[in-house]
């Protein structure tokens, strides 16, 4: 049987717990958002080769960025998303073991498939730059100069020009 | 009678002590959202993980209170983001959340955001909580913007 004293001690203990628990402090909330944008993959399409046609030994040949035989690329993607773009521009064209220098690249970019009013961009091979898509597309127009030597071996010379593009997330 | 008086005096003392304790517990605690958890651009079918320590993209909130304050943090995590008329699954791992005594996410104290965690402000009056996660877009995930709320509830446990 519980004595009165023991009961009072229990009562004191219970009061201690209840009182010392104090008023419940309100919890506070903050909210953040998880967000993402699902985009269509970036696609790069080579539309036309940079074609110098027939060249002669010792005579340089230049194809302008707006010439009919200039190199052309198209990039497609999401809206006006920003892209990181880089060109790999060869320093020579190859024909077996023979090479022919190629240099003085000129690159212009436009939001429509036309070299008119295209914007000049200074391109360094392998160096990325950023550009925003225009209504989901960008067109690039590439010109350059070849320098066949006076002893250039006859034949067909070629090298790849590579355009790489990826979303920056902006 | 003696026991009764003694108990009464003891209760009065306890009440006084607890009043003081209650006043200390009532120190304000503030919760401030800093930054959303942003996955940026996602490609259909390509899972993307944002680590809590990725300062530019992790979700961040700041808790400010007096030194010594103990509190419990509880995330209410979404399982999907909504957008483009559909959902995009999300996942949070056992180490997706982290706490730091400043806004610098180096040397995070990692914890599982799916479980309530308790912290105490020992050396600073401010703590920043970082949240990472994984987005799992499906192969045919429609293009568009997706979002979901993360609710962070902080319960002040006092000093």
Protein model, in words:
- The complex is a heterodimer of chains A (about 170) and B (about 160).
- Chain A has about 170 residues and is mainly beta.
- Chain A has one helix and eleven strands.
- In chain A, strands 2, 3, 4, 6, 7, 8 and 10 form a seven-stranded antiparallel sheet that branches. A three-stranded antiparallel sheet of chain A has the order 9-5-11, with no helix packed on it.
- In chain A, a hairpin with a 2-residue loop joins strand 6 and strand 7.
- The radius of gyration of chain A is 34 Å and the shape is elongated.
- Chain A starts with a helix and ends with a strand.
- In chain B, about 15% of the residues lie in helices and about 45% in strands.
- Chain B has one helix and 13 strands; from the N terminus they run H-E-E-E-E-E-E-E-E-E-E-E-E-E.
- In chain B, the strands form three sheets. Chain B has a five-stranded antiparallel sheet, with no helix packed on it. Chain B has a four-stranded antiparallel sheet with strand order 3-12-7-6, with no helix packed on it.
- The radius of gyration of chain B is 22 Å and the shape is elongated.
- Residues about 1-25 of chain B have low confidence and may be disordered.
- The chains are: A mainly beta (about 170), B alpha+beta (about 160).
- At the A-B interface, helix 1 and strand 1 of A face helix 1, strand 1, strand 2, strand 4 and strand 13 of B.
Note the overall shape of chain B: elongated
How would you describe the shape of chain A?
elongated
Helix-strand pattern of chain B: HEEEEEEEEEEEEE
Which chains share the greatest interface?
A-B, 32 and 61 residues
Beta-strand fraction estimate of chain A: 35-45%
Q: Structural class, from helix and strand content of chain B?
A: alpha+beta
Distance between the termini of chain A: 77 Å
Care to give the gist of this entry?
The complex is a heterodimer of chains A (170) and B (159). By secondary structure, chain A is mainly beta.
